[in-house]
Design a protein that fits this description.
homodimer; 452 residues; FAD/NAD(P)-binding domain; 2 domains; 6-stranded mixed beta sheet; 12 helices; globular; transmembrane (chains A, B); FAD (chains A, B)
């Protein structure tokens, strides 16, 4: 890093977004003679793989969120700003923030991540929140816990049953862990605490539009995941395409399981629907594509060069969920990088390395993704693991997969403090079946839900 | 408790509110042949003495909030309902909830607590939030942390200085601990994390309308508290009457310290004002007074009989901050019960004991408050303690007072789980000066603040 020319004016790198990609990029510029500015629209780096635990009251928010500026307190070349990007002025090379600030850059790293996609049905968002931010997690926690509260107060049997229908849409990792944990709450955490309902009678339904859950996993592990979900008490329905969602519940195409085989659709009454089906790149992707004349893929991700830069703009790199990036292994066809946190972290480091090369007048290098495997948790004692190894894939499921998943996640948590808290919270939750963070706030706004 | 007649229909007790008073009342009815229903408008019992730690990012919300129904899971005669009281039908003896439920009672215990009072200036609430609920604490946390963020982005020196003015109104226990902790954040937690501002340059101003802080304490301890606050970096201004609060700051009557002595008022520009000045009884007090024809005091508290019942309504007891109650010691003049948590807990237990007596056909007993003393924390290593003892009061301040305060509060925290978490959080915060829960959520709504 000492190869950077010691000019009077230090080069300026602006990093937009402090998820896994942005954080790793900024860290990789540590000790360099570069002024780095990290802009994020929240004040915290979020450990998203455990966000479902906040949504299901297993962890408090601070356990998985570290203040961005605290993470950089010992990296004096980093300035942290809380702000939202309004526009990127590619010609003038500056990032314009809402509120009027302009951040000039010599190199820009865009790591703005992804948000939910409702495939053009944004009106569904109000009835089926997704899970990307802490506010999302609080909203889902509120809906889950208030649904049980409302059921306890409800005298009409049909309405009570509707309050106890929990539907998760999408059988990807988020949908699977949400459904598994909901089943755990209904069967292990809440029983004994209600006087008019039996929480264990709640129905947890996981709807997957494709033919199997966890499609990124090998087929055998998908099958194991489905079996483990069913053992936990989740009803898994594949080939289940949702055609409508409103305040009363959702409509699914095709005949209902065990119903009239000639029916073209059926409804599930539910007041608690969690959306885990679609992901779309941050709107910043489209802004940037328009400003640079580059293209985005169907999910709104920017199609980048092998070195993660935007075509024609070597001074702009895109990393993480916002990039439609490929992995380049010499002598092989490039393969798409999966949208997982190791991918974002590796891209962040690679983009930073290319910034250093570029400022040193060296050519940039194509990105190569190292795939160490794939984990998914399902619930108590249940997970599936698919590890890459030189001797071929190592695949296992069940209790040891769950332990492996748990320690891997606690290990990668940012900051020792959080690791300890999370381990303690889980240890306690495991032995007592209790869930620590069953606190509902913002209840005023949710009151209508209970009074309906 | 076995003296209750074993009738076919068990007597029904409804308890409104599950703060300290309601919780203790319900617990005191454990094992009795009574059906108890506890109604609260939140889903958690809040350990309010540590709420300022949530507001100042020292503790996460779940550390001081336990789900109400979890607390009663092993008390089968208690049914927990999440709901807000709309009206109390005294003639029909039923509590009507918003949303339409009616809860019939044979005995009613009202423990609905208190809220902020702006002395008729409710328009101040938007600019100077008070601290009673978790949502209040999140709002104040958001304003504190976002003020530093905004200062870091602000280029205009006057506006930057305004962002770094933190004003606490009211020198009672809440005001004192908020001001002391704000000074700790500015001087110990945040330094080193900003590049454009020095957080330690923040001004923390505590405004008290009376002649001294902590007026419930002996004068010498008030003086010690003031000195300790000043040592922590708080500017304490007594005899400082606030006459206006708006979006730009507040106006104080009289000349500014060190300013023109002839001036009749001065302004303090500030974007972060915390209200700790006034407390008013829950609006339920007025409803109940109207329904029963009884009277309330200036703070809206119901004036109760010696046995805590409402005059003419032996079947309704009022406990905690909603009651203008007196302590009755034989042979002495009755004295007012202070609005502190031991008072609420003792009233809750006393009301429950009178319910049992009444149902057993025995006469009720007047309430007697046992005063064990008074503690107030100020900040790191700083507190004042005034203990009652048979040999006269024991008073001390400083480090040992702080340790005493800390262990007393951790001891009284509801639930072992929370105690452990709180102790760990504090141990960590003490050694590292870090604050664990610096997570701001609901930032969308607060964005305007930053863009102003």
């Amino acid at each position: 890093m000492s190869s950077i020319p010691n000019t009077a004016i230090r080069p300026r790198v602006v990093i937009v977004g402090c998820g896994f990609g942005g954080l790793e990029a900024a860290r990789a510029l540590r000790g360099s003679a570069i002024d780095v500015t990290v802009v994020d629209k929240t004040n915290h780096h979020l450990f998203q793989p455990l966000l479902y635990q906040v949504a299901t009251a297993g962890l408090s928010a601070p356990a998985i969120a570290a203040p961005v500026r605290h993470l950089f307190r010992k990296q004096p070349n980093v300035t942290t700003l809380l702000g939202e990007v309004e526009r990127i002025d590619v010609a003038e090379r500056q990032v314009l923030l809402q509120g009027g600030d302009a951040l000039p850059y010599d190199h820009l790293i865009v790591a703005a991540g992804a948000t939910h996609s409702y495939f053009g049905r944004d009106d569904w968002a109000a009835f089926a929140p997704g899970l990307k931010t802490l506010d999302d997690a609080f909203e889902i926690r509120r809906r889950i816990l208030l649904a049980f509260e409302a059921a306890e107060r409800e005298n009409d049997p049909a309405r009570r049953a509707a309050w106890l229908n929990f539907v998760v849409v999408g059988g990807g990792p988020t949908g699977v862990e949400m459904a598994g944990t909901l089943a755990e709450i209904a069967r292990h955490t809440l029983p004994g605490e209600f006087r008019h309902i039996d929480p264990a009678s709640a129905k947890i339904i996981l709807l997957e539009g494709g033919t199997r859950v966890l499609q990124a996993m090998p087929e055998a592990l998908s099958q194991r995941a489905k079996e483990q979900l069913e053992k936990l008490g989740v009803e898994v329905r594949v080939d289940a395409r949702v055609t409508a969602i409103d305040a009363t519940g959702l409509t699914v195409a095709g005949p209902a399981p065990g119903g009239d085989p000639a029916a073209t659709s059926y409804t599930i009454p539910s007041q608690c629907i969690v959306w885990g089906a679609g992901v779309a790149a941050s709107p910043l992707g489209r802004l940037l594509a328009e400003a640079t004349g580059s293209t985005t893929d169907r999910a709104g991700r920017l199609v980048v060069e092998p070195d993660l830069s935007i075509p024609g703009h070597p001074e702009i790199s895109v990393v993480g969920d916002l990039a439609a990036a490929k992995s380049h292994v010499p002598g092989q066809e490039p393969t798409p990088v999966p949208g997982v946190s190791p991918g974002a972290k590796q891209m962040g480091r690679a983009a930073a390395a290319n910034v250093l090369r570029r400022l040193a007048g060296q050519p940039s290098q194509p990105f190569r993704y190292r795939d160490y495997g794939n984990l998914a948790t399902i619930g108590r004692n249940a997970a599936v693991v698919d590890l890459a190894s030189p001797m071929g894939p190592v695949r296992f499921s069940g209790y040891f997969a769950w332990l492996f998943w748990l320690f891997a996640h606690v290990y990668f948590l940012i900051g020792f403090r959080n690791r300890l808290v999370v381990l303690m919270d889980w240890g306690w939750a495991y032995w007592s079946f209790a869930r620590y963070a069953r606190v509902v706030t913002g209840i005023e706004g949710a009151k209508k839900q209970l009074q309906e």
